Amino acid sequence: MSDDKDFVAGFDSNARKAPVRVAFVTRRTSPQVKVADEDQVMTHPGVFLRVAVAVELLTIALVTLALAWDAPLEGLADPMHTPNPAKAPWYFLGLQELLHYFPPVLAGVLIPTLVVLALIVIPYFNINIQAESLWARDGAKRLRIVVVVAVALSVFLAFFDVWVALVPTVIIAVVMFLAARSSSQSASAMRRWLYSKPLSFWIMTWFLAEAAVLTAVGTFFRGPGWSWVWPWRS
Fold first, then answer.
1. C-alpha to C-alpha distance for 42 and 26, rounded to whole angstroms
2. Is a pLDDT exceeding 70 seen at residue 168?
3. I need a labelling partner for 231 at 20 to 30 A (CA). Which of 86, 129, 173, 220 fits?
4. 18-70 pLDDT, tens digit each
5. Contact yes or no for 168/215 (Cβ under 8 A)
6. pLDDT at 17
7. Which residues, including other chains, have CB under 8 Å from residue 223's CB and lie 6 or more apart?
């Protein structure tokens, strides 16, 4: 052990600020570590308890809705009289809307598979490990990449006339451009919030926006022959 180290005796009850090897605890101090708020919570029991409460509340809400209102079910299926249009359940209408634009293999197999794989893999990219802002490092370079991806995706959707999916893509791209032009010291709280979001947030937001728009269009704006109809017109 080198002799150039200085050892200072003092009084402190916080072992995090003063990690000493030998401590003399007097009657007026406590050896316990003071509790401090942290950004992370333990999986058990913190997260498990919140998930259990959320599941119970959702179950109560669904049971209450089922008891108060009947499901809008139609009559028994008749193979001799199929409805026009024959719509899938609401949670598949987004996929059915894609099948209206793309070939079945592309819309029914490739796109869902790529989306699921992307949602699984992207959160584990190095850029998301610290959940830091997408624009915190190499902001100009990342903005160029985002612009190229957004333009390529927009051209792809426009080529197949998927205008209902192009609109959310353009909106998300514009909001990302606004976030890239912001900073952590921006005067607007909204711009500071947008600037702080990681890549996984933007991809998930785009995915949810696309799913919501495609599902809404398939539910309310498709009539006989899957033609476009306005919901307020019979």
1. 32
2. yes
3. 173
4. 655 565 556 666 555 565 666 666 777 778 888 999 999 999 999 999 999 98
5. no
6. 66
7. 85, 229
Res 211 pLDDT > 80: yes
Are 233 and 184 a contacting pair, CB within 8 Å? no
What pLDDT is recorded for position 195?
A: 92
What HEC string does the chain produce? Answer: CCCCCCCCCCCCCCCCCCCCCCCCCCCCCCCCCCCCCCCCCCHHHHHHHHHHHHHHHHHHHHHHHHHHCCCCCCCCCCCCCCCCCCCCCHHHHHHHHHHHHCCHHHHHHHHHHHHHHHHHHHHHCHHHHCCCCCCCCCHHHHHHHHHHHHHHHHHHHHHCCCHHHHHHHHHHHHHHHHHHCCCCCCCCHHHHHHHCCCHHHHHHHHHHHHHHHHHHHHHHCECHHHCECCCCCC
Residue 84 pLDDT: 85
Close Cβ partners of 218 (under 8 Å, ≥ 6 residues apart) = 87, 93, 94, 96, 97
Token couple for 214? 């495609």
Report, as an integer, the average pLDDT of 193-207: 89
This prediction's pTM: 0.68
> Is 160 in contact with 101 (CB distance < 8 Å)?
yes
Q: What mean pLDDT comes out for the span 177-195? A: 90
CB atoms within 10 A of CB 133: 22
